[in-house]
Amino acid sequence: MPNFRVFTRWRGLTPAESSQGEIKREHNRENATLSSVSIAMPSQCNKLPAQMKEWTSGSSMTGIFKMSDSNKTVFDAVMAPILPQVLQGKSCNVFAYGHSGSGKTHTIIGYNYEAIDDLGLCLATARQLVDALNRLNEPNKRDPLGVGVRIYELRRNSAYDLLNDGGECFVREGPDGQVYIRGKTEMLENGKVRVKPIVTKACWSFEDLSRELQKGLKFRATGMSSVHDQSSRTHAVIELEIVTKTLLVARDAVIERESELVPIGKYATDVYIEEQSRAVIRNSDGGYAPNPEYQVDQARIDAVEAKKAEFESFVESAKEHESQVFDTIAGTHACLGGKLVFVDLAGSEYYNDKGGPKMNQSAQEKQVGRHINTDLLALKEVIRARAQGSARIPFRSSPLTMVLRPHFQNSEDSHSAMILTVSPASSEFAATMNTLKYGNMVGAAGSSK
């Protein structure tokens, strides 16, 4: 049985599409939990070869949403079952995948922030989450539970912090094997150097959270697709984490101690290089030999190394304090650290009615499209490798999968979901078929163990 839950959501036809014909589709319940999808072009359409006029998925779909289904219907089926997991401190991931203009952003984020009954999955879930945390906060309001929000988008090899005016960040793998998203280096007084992580905005009410989300999404890059003038040609990642003020203060202390260590570490390196450089001279043949007139001042090196070790201990103490704070609060509130990660994937590449790329794409669109497709292929391979229990998971295949690595590692696939957003318009048959094929491979991966 597939571990990763896959849902299909048919969006409504636009007025312009209504006259073009509609894809024939059937949904067949194969067993108690899974369905298959069959699609076919209208009989009057003769543009495609026979082998490209119809397609049927395997038994890979957990659920299928009709054109008339609202965001609330999607929430009840996709999010309601996994919200209790988040309130137990676990992580859950939700992806929206589909071609440009198929309704991904409408599903994940929504466009009408005032329509409580039709909010996108992110805000609808946040509303339920805040209500649950408020109930938990009633007995003790000294260090209330809240929701920490992080929003960033991925374009090519960089991340952009949407809660920090869209500032560019860098995706790096640290010496500890963990992946970090860091902003640009800040130069402070007394030689301090600070590299802050992506901004976390703490929200104590649904209104605050909705406001921060709307503010951040204004910085998302759009309008780069010839298919859809408001298409998001980036992957947007929205993280909701259960936090408290005490925990956030402890995390900030770690960053501060790290900024204090940087100039000390740099000075220790400079002293070592200086002493070693003085201890050698260049000979006539261009090589190096010991300098008989200088002896390495090992005491000087040892002194700065001791100072460096002292500041490293401050960093370790701050990290231990953060861990202790987390464990103490989690002892009372098991939900602490619970996380929901919503990924609004960039539009998968779109096709003309012969199955190839649209001919009116600009050179820039083609380049962006190739990079997006590389990311999406890497994501599929990560999901497949996890489902098959592979010893090696190819997280390093793209910046997208690198960033998602900790979220995958801290979650169970059964608590994750992918929503395929597809158009019923006959003009989008090839794009819809490719979206369903992608989802079919994701949903069927677990059964191929």
TrEMBL record:
SUPFAM superfamilies cross-referenced by the UniProt entry: P-loop containing nucleoside triphosphate hydrolases
One Pfam family in the UniProt entry: Kinesin
Entry protein name: Kinesin-like protein
Organism of provenance: Penicillium antarcticum
Domain (Kinesin motor) ranges: 3-445
UniProt keyword Oxidoreductase present: no
Signal peptide: none
Annotated ATP binding sites: 98-105
UniProt keyword list: ATP-binding, Microtubule, Motor protein, Nucleotide-binding
Superkingdom classification of source: Eukaryota
Family: Belongs to the TRAFAC class myosin-kinesin ATPase superfamily. Kinesin family.
GO terms of molecular function: ATP binding; ATP hydrolysis activity; microtubule binding; microtubule motor activity
UniProt KW Nucleotide-binding keyword: yes
GO terms of biological process kind: microtubule-based movement
Example of a GO cellular component annotation carried by this entry: microtubule
Family matches, as InterPro entries: Kinesin-like_fam (IPR027640), Kinesin_motor_CS (IPR019821), Kinesin_motor_dom (IPR001752), Kinesin_motor_dom_sf (IPR036961), P-loop_NTPase (IPR027417)
